[in-house]
Amino acid sequence: MNSIERFYATIAYEPVDRPACWLGDPTPEEAKKLCAFYGVEDTKGLKRVCGDDFYAVEIPYHSPTCNAIFAAFDWYMNGSNVDTEHRTLTADGCFAECEDMDDVLAVNFPWPDPEKYIDPELCRKLVDEAPEGKVVMGMLWACHFQDTCAAFGMQTALMNMVAEPEIVHYVDEKIIEFYEKALRIFLEATKGKVHAVLIGDDIGSQRGLMISPDLVSRFVIPGAKRLIEIAHSYGVKIVYHSCGSIVEAIPQLIEAGVDVIHPIQAMAAGMQPENLKSKFEGKVAFCGGVDTQDLLPYGTPEQVAAKVRELRTVFPTGLIVSPSHEALQADVPAENVKALFDEAGKIY
Fold first, then answer.
1. What are the average pLDDT values for consecutive 10-residue runs of the chain, which has 348 residues?
2. Could you read off the pLDDT of 109-137 as tens digits, one per residue?
3. Cα–Cα distance for residue pair 12/136, rounded to 1 Å
4. How far apart are the first and last CA of the chain?
5. d(Cα 319, Cα 23) in Å, to the nearest integer?
6. N or C: which end of the chain has fewer CB within 10 A?
7. What is this structure's pTM?
8. pLDDT, tens digit, for every residue of 55-93?
């Protein structure tokens, strides 16, 4: 099987020669360390040699104030909301003092137009750089729930979801429209060359959902469903990201049409592979499972290999083996990453 065949078989719960695997998106420090360990020049070379089945492409976004689509909104209206390393959802955004729709409209927020800042030709170029046979995954993120939290400040946003839902829905709608347009631009420019798109919102904590299932159904799922429908209309699968314990929200994500849940955050409540399999086998595929909180940073290669064997036993198919967070941190030894891919790559 090649990577693309393995990916489609995995998400369909069909037999595979070995699990599909994704390295994720290592931090620059970790990527540099891994490249040195494997003796390659860049992450493209790294993915060729380590056994990664995926090639992730960040949807290119370049505005006068921002070079990352996941930070496209200048919620502080100061022209400098571009610090992707230290941005926060908790600081007051420009809608923090709004109490009704008149207040929201009076802010006169400059909603960005993705058509101005996404170059279709650059989209095609970045996708065409993917190594032959890899699963090309567009990284849209489209974290409309998190963006809405940042627009108000998280505490205010969550309170307004109950007390003033109209103003939250208005801001959320504008954000969703932005991501819908961005997704269409990207998929139209790369038609037939992209296999999956990653979207999502962090709605889980270590112990459970951050908001109630009812609020998830009202403020998270509708936007996700609209993006999923666009992707599916192009024949593209959806990988839905949320950190934390989201087991209570998975039925809603399945109903919305999600193809793959990412990640299995290994140490979060209810996210044990056995529990997920018993509840959702055949209904949705998963990605993750190799703990990045304790095992990958502090474990031994032998322990990492043992965890991969365990995951393969629970999920002989239906699971993309991957670190339980897409951004591998610099505290993960390269030897442990190699152990993950070596064990996952074995043909039993």
1. 97 98 94 96 90 96 91 86 66 96 97 98 97 95 96 97 98 98 98 98 96 98 98 98 97 98 95 97 97 97 98 98 93 97 95
2. 999 999 999 999 999 999 999 988 999 99
3. 18
4. 14
5. 14
6. C
7. 0.96
8. 999 999 999 888 899 999 999 888 765 566 666 788 899
How far is residue 20's CA from residue 4's CA, in Å, rounded to a whole number? Answer: 9
Query: What residues have CB less than 8 Å from 87, skipping those under 6 apart?
Result: 71, 81, 150
Which segments of 118-233 does DSSP mark as H helices, in order?
Answer: 120-128, 144-152, 154-163, 165-189, 213-219, 221-233
CB 187 within 8 A of CB 236: yes
Edge-to-edge order in the sheet of strand 260-264: 54-58, 135-141, 196-200, 237-241, 260-264, 285-290, 319-323
Instruction: Round to whole Å and give the CA distance between 218 and 165.
Output: 10
Nearest alpha-carbon partner for 242 in 303, 286, 200:
200
Count the Cβ atoms, other than its own, within 10 Å of residue 131: 13
Helix (H) or strand (E) holding 56: strand 54-58
* 341 vs 26: CA distance, rounded Å: 15
